Amino acid sequence: MEPRHYDVVVIGAGLAGLCLSRQLLLNTTKTVLLVERRPEIPLKRQKVGESSVQVSGYYLGKVLDLEEYLLHGQLLKYNLRFHYKRDQCGNRNFEDYCVSYIRTYSNLPTYQLDRNTLEEELLRRNVQCERFRFVAPAAELETTLSATDEAPHRVSFLNNGTPETVTAGWVVDTSGRSKFIARQQGLKLENPIHHGSSFFWVEGLVNIEKLSDRSHRASRLDPARQSIGSSPFWLATNHFVGEGFWFWVIPLRHKTSLGLVYDRSRVREDDVNTPEKLTRWICREFPLFERDLPKRKVLDWGYLRDYSYDCAQTISPRKWALSGEAGRFSDPLYSPGGDLIALYNTLIADAICTDDPIQLRLKSRFYEGMMRAFYEAYVPSFSTGYDALGDQECFVMKYTWELAVYFSFYVLPFINDFFTDLKFLPHFLPRFARLGPVNKTLQMLINGYYHWKKNERMPQTDRTFFDFYEILPLRNAETLFYRIGISREEAGMILEKQLMVVIEYAKFIVAHITARVVDDPAVVTNRAFIEGIDLANAAFNEHQMRARWAACPKGGEPYQWILDPCVFDRFQTALRPELMLAAGD
Question: What is the structure's pLDDT at 331?
C-alpha cells in the first residue's frame, strides 16, 4: 500500500508550527500533518516568550484571524518600559527609578501571551479543519529529504507504537531547540551572542506601581503622571536594566512572568540559576522587589545557559524549510522571536504555494537572503549593545534608532504583504542593505560612549523621564502603521524617505555624542562638522573626536535638523551635577 501523502508535514507543535499550520489552513487548500514527539500539547510546564511586538501582534491578530480571541483570552500590551536605578538613592520604591517609555498605545495591537493557552487555542482551531491531522506522541521520528524538487520527502514515526510512513510535498521543521533538520543536515552555526537567561513564574500579579511606601492616593495624584501617563504600567513589558543585563516583568492572566537576561561576562550564572538565587540577586540589584518577590509562590521556572545561535540555511528549493527556534534565534530583548516566526512563516507559506519550479528556485534564493538579513540585522544590537543598557541616555539613542528602522523596514512592508512580492524586493533590499553598516557603527559608537561616561564617573541622580516618541524620526515612523493598502511604488518612495530620515538621525547621534565628549554643544549645530560625518568611520575615539572638532571651521549658518537638537539636554542636567551648581550661581 502506498504511504499516505500530505502537501505539508510540519515537525513540532510549538508556536511556529501551530501558526504555520493555521496560516496554510486559512489561506490554501493544502493538507497538513503536524507531528509532535511530546505526548501532550500544550505542555504542563510553562512556556517562555510571552511578549509580542507589532509584526507578531499583527500576524497573530490579523493574518491568523485571532484578534477576538487575543483581546478576550490574553492581555493587551502597553508597549515596552525601561527602568533605571539612580545613584545616591535607595531604589526601594517605584518612584525612585528613571523611566523611558512610549506613553500611547500602539495602533497595531500587541499582546502579553500565555504561550500555553495560546498554543492550546491554535491546536483546537487547527483540528477543526478536515485537511489537518495531528499526531502526538510521534516517536522515533525519521525524515528522508528528497534530493530533487520533484520527488516527495518521506517521514516515518511510531504513532502510539504503530509504525507509520507518509510522504510529503514539503517538510517544515518547527521543532524548536531540537533543531531536527539543522542537526540532520549539518546546518548549525554559532554566533557572537553569548547570553544566558533565568526565569520563573509566580502566582498573581506583580504590580510594580505598588512597590512603594506611598499611599494609593499619593500614587494616583503623582505629578509625574503628566509625563509617564495613567494607563496601567503593569500591562507593559517592564524592563529593569543595568550594564549587560535586563530583568523582565510580564503580566499574564493570574500569574506573572519574571526573568533575567544577561551577558555571561557580566553576570555569574551560578548566582542566578535557580528561582531562589535569582530572587536574591534581583532584590539586591533592584531593592523595590524586596517587598514582593520573596513572598510569592513560584509556579514554574527555567534556565538557558547560552540560547543564541545561527543556521546556515532555512529554506530550500528542494521543498524543506525551518522556522522558529528550529533555525535561528538571536535574543529576547525587544521580543523579536515572534516577529521572526511571522516573517519566516509568511515566506515559507508563499513558497509552499509556488508550483512553478523556476519561480520556487528564485523565491527560495530571495527568501533565504531576506531571512538571513532579518536575523543579522538584530545581531549587532545584541552582541555589541548590551552594555548600553546600563545608561538611560545611551539606551534611548540605541533604542529609538532601532525602533525607527523597525517601524519603517519591518512593520510597513509586513502589514502590506510586500515581503512576498518579488517586484517589491528591488525597492526594499538595496535600502535595507544600507542600514546594516550604519547599525554596526552606531552600536559600537554608543557602546564606546557608555564606557567613556562610566569612566568619567557621571552619576545619575535626577529622576528622568523620556518618552521615545519625543524623537521626531521615530514618531514619524509610527505614522506608517496607518499606511495600509499602498502600492509597491508608494512603498518604495516611503522607504527612500525613511532611509534618509534614519540616516540623518544616525548623524545626529554621532554629533550629540561628540558634543558631549568635547564638552561643546556647538558641535550639534555646526554645519561643517555634520556634513563631514562619515557613518562608515564613526567609531568612538575620544582623541579623534577632539582633534576633528578642533580642526572644524566654526561659525557660519547652523545646520537645521529634522528633530529638536536639544532633545537630550535633560540627560546633561541629570549627569552633570556641577552644571546645576554653575547655573545656580
Answer: 96
Predicted local distance difference test score (pLDDT) of residue 583: 35
- Tell me how long the chain is: 585
Enter the pTM of the model: 0.96
For residue 548, the one-letter residue type is R
pLDDT at 409: 98
How is residue 25 written as a grid cell? 489552513
Give the pLDDT score at 1.
63
Q: Could you report how far apart the first and last alpha carbons of the chain are, in Å?
A: 94
Any domain includes 419: no
Q: Give the pLDDT confidence score for residue 581 in this predicted structure.
A: 40
Tell how far CA 148 is from the center of its chain.
36
* Residue among 403, 399, 408, 374 at smallest CA distance from 500: 408
Dist. CA 508–CA 511, nearest whole Å: 5
Identity at 565, one-letter amino acid code: P
Q: What is the pLDDT of residue 334?
A: 94
Task: Tell me the helix, strand and coil percentages in the chain, rounded to 5.
Answer: 50, 20, 35
Contact between 397 and 516 (Cβ < 8 Å): no
* Rounded Cα–Cα distance for residues 294 and 404 (Å): 39
Mark which of 349, 370, 391 sits at the end of a domain: 370
Nearest C-alpha neighbor of 161 from the set 195, 135, 125: 135
Question: In the prediction, which pLDDT does 557 show?
Answer: 93
CA dist 288 and 163 (Å) reads: 56
For residues 355 and 421, give the distance between their C-alpha atoms in angstroms, rounded to a whole number: 16
For 462-505, the three-class secondary structure string (H helix, E strand, C coil) is CCCEEEHHHCHHHHHHHHHHHCCCCCHHHHHHHHHHHHHHHHHH
- Return the HEC string of 529-544: HHHCCCHHHCCCCHHH
Are residues 128 and 182 both part of a single domain? yes
Nearest by Cα to 6 from 367, 352, 363: 352
Of the candidates 537, 516, 496, which has an alpha carbon nearest to the alpha carbon of residue 452?
A: 516
pLDDT recorded at residue 461: 76
Rounded mean pLDDT for each run of 10 residues along the chain, 585 residues in total: 90 98 98 94 90 98 98 97 92 96 97 98 98 96 91 94 96 96 96 97 98 95 93 97 98 98 96 98 98 97 96 97 97 95 98 97 96 94 94 97 98 98 93 95 96 85 93 97 97 97 98 96 96 92 96 93 95 54 36
Bridge partners, residue 201, by sequence: 257, 300
* Radius of gyration of the chain from its Cα atoms, rounded to whole angstroms: 25
Domain count, the chain: 3
Q: Are residues 455 and 513 in the same domain?
A: yes
- Please identify, among 370, 391, 416, the residue that sits at the C-terminal boundary of a domain: 370
Q: Are 170 and 203 contained in the same domain?
A: no
**Residue 290 DSSP one-character state:** G
Q: What is the structure's pLDDT at 573?
A: 54
Cβ pair 100, 395 in contact under 8 A: yes
What is the CB neighbour count within 10 angstroms for residue 498? 21
Residue with cell 549587560: 244
Structural domain for 489, as ranges: 442-584
Q: 558 has which bridge partners?
A: 526
